[in-house]
Amino acid sequence: MAEPDDLGAEIREIIAHDGPISIERFMALALTHPSKGYYTARDPFGATGDFTTAPEISQMFGELIGLWAADLWERIGAPAELRLVELGPGRGALMSDFLRAARVAPGFFAALDVHLVEASDKLADRQSEALASCGRPVSWHRTLDGVPAGPAIFIANEFFDALPTRHYVKTPQGWREKLIGLDGDGRLAFGLGDQIEPFLKAEAEDGAVLEINAAAQRVMSQIAARIVEQNGALLAVDYGYLQTGFGETLQAIKAHRFVDPLAEPGQADLTTHVDFSALSRAARAVHAEAHGPVPQGRFLIDIGIIERAEALAGRASEDQRAQIDAALARLTDMEETGMGALFKVLAVTRRGLRDLPGFTEADEDGHGA
Q1: Cα–Cα distance, 16 to 7 (Å, whole number)
Q2: Which helix (H) or strand (E) element contains residue 234?
């Protein structure tokens, strides 16, 4: 029997009993197992955790998204009540900074009813502490279905990358799903399932890998359909690629380092790069408008991060100015491996809404690259 705190042993027992499992099921167990999952059992954020997100790097990130949302609220008719929904809110840093900045637009701030979609009780407690004096009502939900009806702005920062995905490999016999089973020593190991054609018709060379994240597309379809029916918008920020293509991007991070994805289920973060083209198609399929994606660096510069950094530096100590400059450089770094280039920003609205701040060029040419 598996040890009470050993998710790897539990997964091995499942495989031994039921046979190999998909990467999708493995990721779901590793990340959101009710008691042993990575997100449900720990606080992974910050320098003492496994990774650092943009809101943890600087308050400017959440503040600017708050101001962007205030402008968007006016563009969609300034509804008297607006659900502000964050998916996977981390420690609550983005939302705290968002709401502080939103106070400069009193009508917008007064309209807000905050809803956080969070699977982890541990993180929900951290969010509650961070937002204890935010000035607006805050509710928590396990899933999107719990968010009340009405106009809504959805914020998804590094959310879609953690949704479980399936991998398919092109072989001389056709496309086969990549699965996780047990090797001769009883350890978790990758393998291939039966041929799946004619389900998948994509042309590719042998050895090519195609990632399909049906979960991400379902979430996007659900949100986009609600936006079309009830008004609102989605702003998604994540690392990923602009066009659907071949390649394997499954990765595991522990203590800010890449590790073997199968080595310690539940002890490391598992993600795949987001297919923004697929997300855009899912939004347009339910008659929503997709803006972008655009590189994070360009988006933040376009909506005023340089000006915000200058304002903060003007009343800061020398050490604080150095920290502000470092954060600005990190968030907007447009080198190939910099956050400003790796991370993309996608907005979804009703059709006909154009010239959104940060997306003007994307609206003009139909894409963000």
Answers
A1: 14
A2: strand 232-241
- Name the token pair of 303: 């909506």
- Rounded to whole angstroms, the Cα distance separating 68 from 108 reads 11
Q: What is the mean pLDDT of each run of 10 residues along the chain (369 residues)?
A: 69 96 96 85 59 88 98 97 97 96 98 95 92 96 96 97 94 92 95 78 86 95 98 97 90 89 91 96 98 97 96 91 95 94 97 93 51
Two structure tokens written together for 28: 């779901």
What is d(CA 188, CA 183) in angstroms, rounded to the nearest whole number? Answer: 6
Q: Which of 160, 149, 142, 104 is nearest to 273 (CA)?
A: 160
Task: Determine the Cα–Cα distance for residues 137 and 154; give it in Å rounded to an integer.
Answer: 16
Q: What is the DSSP letter of 161?
A: G
Identify whether the C-beta of residue 160 lies closer than 8 Å to the C-beta of residue 219.
yes
Tokens 């978790």 label which residue?
A: 188
Looking only at the bridges linking them, the beta strands covering 82-87 and 112-117 are: parallel
| Secondary structure (3-state) at 51 | strand
Q: How far apart are CA 219 and CA 154, in angstroms?
A: 12
Q: Report the SS3 class of residue 295.
A: strand
Angle at 280 between CA 279 and CA 281, to 5 degrees: 90
Element (H, E) at 237: strand 232-241
pLDDT in tens, 340-366: 999 999 999 999 998 999 998 655 444
3-state secondary structure of 40: helix
Distances (CA, A) of 104 to 66, 83, 100: 10, 18, 8
What is the identity of the amino acid at 134? C
Grouping H, G, I as helix, E, B as strand and the rest as coil, residue 175 is strand
Cβ burial of 221 (10 Å; 0-12, 13-18, 19+) is middle
Residue 223 · residue 326 · CB < 8 Å: no
For residues 136 and 158, is the Cβ–Cβ distance under 8 A? no
